Amino acid sequence: MDSENILERPFITITNLIWSFDHATNRVNILLVKRDNDPYNNYWALPETFMRAQESAEEAALRLVKEKIGMDLSGSHTEQLATFTNPLRTPGDRALSLGYMTFLPDKPQLKAGYGASDARWFTMGYTDKTYTFSDSDHIFQSTDCPVQRTYYSEFGGTNADPDKHLAFDHEWILKVACDRIRNKLDYQPNILLILGGKFTLKDARRVYSPFLKVRVEQIDNSNFKKSHQELFTDIGSSEVNGPGRPARLYKLAHLSA
Amino acid sequence: MDSENILERPFITITNLIWSFDHATNRVNILLVKRDNDPYNNYWALPETFMRAQESAEEAALRLVKEKIGMDLSGSHTEQLATFTNPLRTPGDRALSLGYMTFLPDKPQLKAGYGASDARWFTMGYTDKTYTFSDSDHIFQSTDCPVQRTYYSEFGGTNADPDKHLAFDHEWILKVACDRIRNKLDYQPNILLILGGKFTLKDARRVYSPFLKVRVEQIDNSNFKKSHQELFTDIGSSEVNGPGRPARLYKLAHLSA
DNA sequence: TTGATTTAAAGTACCTTTAACTTTTAATTA
DNA sequence: TAATTAAAAGTTAAAGGTACTTTAAATCAA
Fold first, then answer.
1. Residue B222 and residue B132 share a domain
2. Using the beta-carbon criterion (under 8 Å), do B85 and A54 form an inter-chain contact?
3. Domain harbouring A141, CATH code
4. Is there contact between B202 and strand D, defined as CB under 7 Å from any strand atom?
5. Which CATH number characterizes residue A237's domain?
6. Which of A16, A76, B37, B124 is the most core-located residue (most Cβ within 10 A)?
7. Are the C-beta atoms of A187 and A240 separated by less than 8 Å?
8. Is residue A6 within 8 Å of B120, Cβ to Cβ?
9. Which residues of chain B are within 8 Å of residue A87 when distances are taken between CB atoms?
10. CA-to-CA distance for B82 and B89, rounded, in angstroms?
11. Where's the Nudix hydrolase domain (chains A, B) (predicted)?
12. Are A39 and A166 within one domain?
């Protein structure tokens, strides 16, 4: 079909967006790692790994979770996001990225030294135009432009600041991911898996909030319950820990994968 | 991160599902080609090409259309479907497949000899459980199982019949594609692009029909019009060519890509 | 203990969308 | 000219979504 000499056998990286929910702060979290090798050394990035022989991309995505945060997720929910193929998305050797998303049922403490100089949970928020991901030291934003700039570490662009931008096209990948999750809220809200085995209606609204870019209070509890009544199963009342009527607890009914 | 010796640099194939509409038979069509090289020599398959250096996968998908049916589609609508990575999906050397879909605004006559021993339009239909794709000599079906059998041409399985099954996992890819198109009918029916610049409401219902697995008559014209009124723009009355009131003609209003 | 406060559940009314069906219109055909 | 055909246009009831109000179950302070 094509002659051999023009064939491309690029590197294949698996990029996995790992989502969790922090029940202390009631916020959606995403895992970012600090790179300790070129390109983009010392930049924060979405966790990546190279695909190995004899494993499917889904298997590589789960192995990645094990390597980065020591969590065994065999049998847990990982889904394909998209594949990023722009030849300019990496400096030097071309690398395709197969994007996946994993929804962790709880937020594990991170142990240092899993193949990166640092790994942290970043809290999701939003502005008018972007989704934001912040920790105590940084705030990163999603971007609307697929490959928004040339490679800082190689060419030293004017915005070459590893405290303000993520590596590669990862700000764009975040945008694609958040838009996908938002679109699926109406018919297959797999993101709710980050709430684990029991949660209140308010918890669920707190997950929806940043994707819809509205405050939790703007999502009416009564209407939210009605439109999710066959998705949520009532499993009793929550323990009381403050003023106000205790919320009921729910679990997810089925959520087909 | 990972040591070099276990890295995989597989072949990358672009698999493009090319959809069109036959205004003579009023049926949805898909392009299949007859392979003239191993593996799966003489099997019918979805059109594929190898990705080249310096081109993105989208560009390769459009180049593929040009090569297979001589149609220049620069600027036309091609969208990503999914990426297929099961190590067992190809015999011998591993090959990832990046799936794309192209919606042709009209159905070109096929010229023989574009890098395959044959290329034909297959008519889409449906049964209870599968989507079907038939021409005068064959009927192929989508399948629910990702890699449903080992490789006929290599191992000589009992169903090793190139007149009954497609190459590789292409029956599974068809299932993923049809389900995706069906899901998007409600909010972004890009498949309607195959109707070209003007069409009747019945034409649009004939496109929906096989994906919904119902007869055209079961899709109520009046309700269909109401739920699509901001998507369709009335551009006048059709020419009369038989008994009955002439149908009005519409064009697509925007259809964001 | 009693009433104010807090938080969430439960209920209400209205409006829009959906779905099934009927009527009207505009063409052909006997 | 009336019957036939095919599609547009209209009707109605049920379902679903949205905004809002009321009730319930807890804490807290006088």
1. no
2. no
3. 3.90.79.10
4. yes
5. 1.10.10.10
6. A16
7. no
8. no
9. 53-56
10. 14
11. 27-124
12. yes
User: CB of residue B219 closer than 7 A to nucleic acid strand D?
Assistant: no
Tokens of A208: 């929806």
Domain count, chain B: 2
Question: Which residues in chain B have Cβ-Cβ distances shorter than 8 Å to A8?
Answer: 12, 50-53
Q: What residue spans of chain B are helical by DSSP H?
A: 57-69, 152-155, 170-184, 201-212, 221-227
DSSP conformational letter for B138: -
From the CA of A234, how many Å to the nearest CA of chain B?
A: 29
Query: Which residues does B4 contact at the CB level (< 8 Å), separation at least 6?
Result: none
Nearest to B2 among A7, A49, A58 (CB): A49
Range of the domain at A59: 11-183
Q: Are A31 and B27 in contact (CB under 8 A)?
A: no
B240 touches strand C (CB under 7 A): yes
Is there a domain that residue B58 lies in?
yes
pLDDT in tens, chain A (257 residues): 444 445 667 889 999 999 999 999 999 999 999 998 888 889 999 999 999 888 889 999 999 988 888 888 876 789 999 999 988 888 877 889 999 999 999 888 887 665 678 899 999 999 999 999 999 999 999 998 887 666 655 554 444 788 899 999 999 999 999 999 999 999 999 999 999 999 999 999 999 999 999 999 999 999 999 999 999 999 988 777 788 899 999 999 976 54
Residue nearest to nucleotide D18 (CA to C1'): A223
Q: Annotate A172-226 with three-state secondary structure.
A: HHHHHHHHHHHHHCCCCCHHHHHHCCCECHHHHHHHHHHHHCCCHHHCCHHHHHH
How far apart are alpha carbons A159 and A169 in whole angstroms?
14
Under 8 Å between Cβ of A96 and B53: no
What's at A166, amino acid-wise?
Answer: L
| Tokens of residue B87, six digits | 């190590």
Name the domain boundary from A183, A213, A242. A183
